[in-house]
Write the structure tokens for this entry.
Amino acid sequence: MLTGQWIVTYLIMAELIGNLLVAQSGGPTSVINASVAGVIQEAGKHGCIEEIYGGLNGILGILNEELIDLNDEKAKAVEGLKFTPGPALGTCRYKVDFKKKPEQAAKDMDRLFEVFAAHNIRYFFYTGGNDSQDTTNHIHAEAVKRNYELRAIGVPKTIDNDLPHTDHCPGYGSVIKYCAATVMEIALDVGGMATDDGSCCIIEVMGRSAGWIAAGSVLAKRQPSDAPHIILMPEIAFNEAAFLAKVKETVAANKFCIVVVGEGLKNTAGEEIGADKNRLDAFGHPVLSGAADRLAEIVQGKLNTKTRTVKLGYAQRAAAHYASLTDANEAAMCGEAAVRAAIDGRSGFMVKIVRSSSSPYKSTTGLQDLNDIANVEHFLPRDWVTEDGFLPNEKFVEYARPLIEGEVRPPTEGGLPKYVILERSRVEKTLPARS
Amino acid sequence: MLTGQWIVTYLIMAELIGNLLVAQSGGPTSVINASVAGVIQEAGKHGCIEEIYGGLNGILGILNEELIDLNDEKAKAVEGLKFTPGPALGTCRYKVDFKKKPEQAAKDMDRLFEVFAAHNIRYFFYTGGNDSQDTTNHIHAEAVKRNYELRAIGVPKTIDNDLPHTDHCPGYGSVIKYCAATVMEIALDVGGMATDDGSCCIIEVMGRSAGWIAAGSVLAKRQPSDAPHIILMPEIAFNEAAFLAKVKETVAANKFCIVVVGEGLKNTAGEEIGADKNRLDAFGHPVLSGAADRLAEIVQGKLNTKTRTVKLGYAQRAAAHYASLTDANEAAMCGEAAVRAAIDGRSGFMVKIVRSSSSPYKSTTGLQDLNDIANVEHFLPRDWVTEDGFLPNEKFVEYARPLIEGEVRPPTEGGLPKYVILERSRVEKTLPARS
């Protein structure tokens, strides 16, 4: 009886009671909110989690003590997050950068832990890509250093699919499903318009350094002659002569040619062919916008083939009206797994997706030490691409095909998707403004 | 009894027995094939129509005697045309141009009627926009002149929505449904990313001279602060100072600004702001591609606000995965009505859509003399746009809202739409090749 009493006491002691804070970071995806829904719904099952807060605009909002009470949201709104694109909590590109700005980073950390302490935050979940996982890792390390009891878990999220150790990233299946459907549709349009003169259409998709998104459009191909006919990935240096020969050959065979290009395509000197070097984003990367337009100039100029461009831009990462159900379910699953890991006492990990079988496709989640993740980019393996470098091969197709299965069907109102907007009821600030 | 016998004989005599030819022309839409399905399905009900042929690549293919036998297609494939984008029969930009090339046009007409006679074509249906209706009108007039018994009816089809006399054009509802959904999604993405610096996203949509497509994106707006915040239509001369003031005001209020621009936006001198004057299309119009990029330069340069562009291009007119069911049904209805009109002895008309009620929305079809249609462009009325010219007003919204109702749900296979490809069984050529 005494022994039993001791065990119960121990279990209660081991349970970390406190509040939860979830926030989103970096470029959104179509299913970014499904992970937040997963966090909220799983957290609701655990008594040790008292309040469920959201940080507005990621770390930036948390530094400004801008928190919202997610327990105040209607259950239906939380469920609706599973089909609502864009970051429902807001996101940011702000990075706690210990390498480039150590003083600011140290100051930021002090402030973050002030906010955590003021609101008794004991569970912290951050959805994002490489930079955001790095931030989560720093927060975990700081908590250990400061002896502040916190469970910090990263939740993967990036259309770029470039996080290591996870089979793939939530957001990726949806972006390639939309891009592949778009390529299929454009091919029916352009192919049906093509007469003897021939024509070319170049579709630019996102992907600064990894070609995962461009590669994914290959799923539109059902027959060898189907579009896309050429896929240009940033991992493979652009060879103009070989490219022009391939376009010419394709137009001769089909009367049209559909090219998909990742925005970050580079020449043999490693320079981005569509970069405007005078514009930099918040992380100091050059702003890319012109790969398709540059290629169109080349095709039009050298082959005299009528060429048009499509730049999907933000549309591709927000197209929840044609998101992958597999992707949305996995995004939610990652959020749930993050909460369960934290409840189990883990901190300093990222949830990863583990593929247990490709056919039939089955996946589960695992955990990876954040030290293995942060700032490591995962590129398309060279042996997943044909020898001439113009298309991913069957290894890639086997990998990618299951990720686009199933359709998310957002409810509609007046012929348009009825997406959820959160109430965002503010948590009262208790600290002086950030200095 | 004798009288009865005479009536039956008369009816048989009045009935024009022969073959049907349907073809598609100009830029495709998401529902272009629904009209062809309507023609085929309605024609199948009438014994006087013997063979149902399709002309490959519009007039161009007919001149080359490239016909396919649509009776050979499976009923399921014909039904599948209702959700398949791109021109299933192929289309062309070729115009029988009596004004600019009268000799070639006369030669073309001789050849067309040779082909019609060789295949006993007595019913001719041509889906298209202004130029195609002009061609149909010429064919009708030539038939009368040549005393060749033919019923030629135009079927409206254009995303541009610029045909006169019809309430709207098949293809329009789908393109604005897709564009509005895309604007809504991009707004959730960009709005969620917007921090104090502010940002701007400029979405370029089609529309060479009419702003109907750009205007249609206003349906994404549910609240006054919702995107799109500014819509630039080619009918209204671009005023840079007023535009910049509006962007600045919007960013100050919302931290972000979504602009939709029709590709043919013009300055006060009537010059297209994004035109590359060195490139001309088959009709001699300048090729437009840069309105959004040009605006982005202006916003970035003058306001120093981070600006990104999206160019939907061909994707918008092929996005059958999110087509309007109202639009698809009306497109089919127009094809059916064309056949019924021809059976009734009419020729030289275009089918038009007549709105009988806006709320609840009800439409039917009518006929308009092709002389009233050809080469007349229908622009957005000025009093359907707000005084400052930056948004369509409630008159437009009342007009456009019903057109996007309902979702076409193409079947899927492997996570992507399963569109129909016709068998295209060729009709044997009987004539010498076109000289």
In short: Residues 207 and 262 of chain B are 5 Å apart (CA to CA). The radius of gyration of chain B is 23 Å. Chain B has 13 helices and 15 strands. The first helix of chain B runs from residue 2 to 14.
